[in-house]
Design a protein that fits this description.
Layout (H helix, E strand, L loop, with lengths): L1 E6 L6 H17 L4 E3 L13 H5 L7 H13 L2 E3 L3 E4 L6 E8 L5 E6 L5 E3 L4 E3 L12 E5 L5 E6 L8 H7 L3 E3 L6 H19 L2 E4 L3 E3 L5 E3 L3 E3 L5 E4 L6 E6 L2 H10 L9
Parallel strand pairs: 1-2, 2-3, 10-11, 11-12
Antiparallel strand pairs: 1-17, 3-5, 4-5, 5-6, 7-8, 9-10, 12-15, 13-14, 15-16
Amino acid sequence: MKVAAIQMVSGVSVEGNLTAAGELLAQAAAAGAELAVLPEYFCLMGRRDSDKLAVREAFGSGAVQAFLGATARELGLWIVGGTLPLQAADADHVRNTSLVYSPDGECANRYDKIHLFRFDNGRESYDESRVIERGSDTRAFTLASRDGASWRVGQSVCYDLRFPELYRALGADVLLVPSAFTHTTGQAHWELLLRARAVENLAYVIAPAQGGTHENGRRTWGHSMVVDPWGAVLAERTDEGAGVVLAELSAARLAEVRSHLPALEHRVL
């Protein structure tokens, strides 16, 4: 199964970001991808955290969800919509939600980001909990590829990557990590953590990311990549800027690695 990790440098205009995402998704589909994953915050990287409140949508309706469903149907593509802001329990917060759309344009799964990023090194400061309400449930879905293989696909978002127990609970063949890692933390830990999660779970990892300097001044690390179950990087975007990272996932390779090293069967805790 060919997959695509979409790298973006999203800005402050939802309309402009959707146009850019549509062009990249069309490139992925034209290259033969069956599954394309957009990065976290693909539809908005606002000037302030609170900008998310103005564009939040109710689950099941809204311009961003309509775009994802229509594009999936038009391209005949599984699309994972990075994250978008959905309504939360109160007016001061949103859910940072990753939605999956099947090729018929229907929403097939929803995951609300569980772990909320906070970082302060004296020069940069972030605290997602100011505006985002965390989710509580792990989520996975089944994707039947064109070759007849059945893949269990587990969802996560960005900062979740630092919590290995989430991935173990998913029991997945493919792990999705749409992200907007800062340049500082990404440079230090991005590839290390992605490869570790792949090896620990003997699973493929698809990690699309924001990558570049945004209108709001934030710089994200990028390096969108796909990692195989042995920890090898199959494909990576090494340049900043938008682009499509393509790789082939092999069900036979997955079975081979899990057969040679049956670590998942050896668990005792």
